[in-house]
Amino acid sequence: MLGENRLKINEISKAVGFLSEQSFYRFFRKAMNATPLEYRDQIGRSTDDSRM
Question: From the CB of residue 23, how many other CB atoms can be counted at a distance below 10 Å?
């Protein structure tokens, strides 16, 4: 879902079952060692690189 830039992070957090965006951020950062926004940026860069 983070790879699809059309959804806001707070919309994603609700869609996957978190009651608050803060809880989603904490859980995601602990699991992925990056915030959802940092992860989205990394995905965007890797997708851009593969297009070249």
Answer: 12
How many domains does the chain contain in total? 1
Dihedral of the alpha carbons of 41, 44, 49, 52, in degrees to the nearest 10: -150
Instruction: Tell me the residue range of the domain where 30 lies.
Output: 9-51
In a domain, 2, yes or no: no
What pTM was estimated for this model as a whole?
0.77
**25 band by pLDDT with thresholds 50, 70 and 90:** very high
Residue 5 has pLDDT above 90, yes or no: no
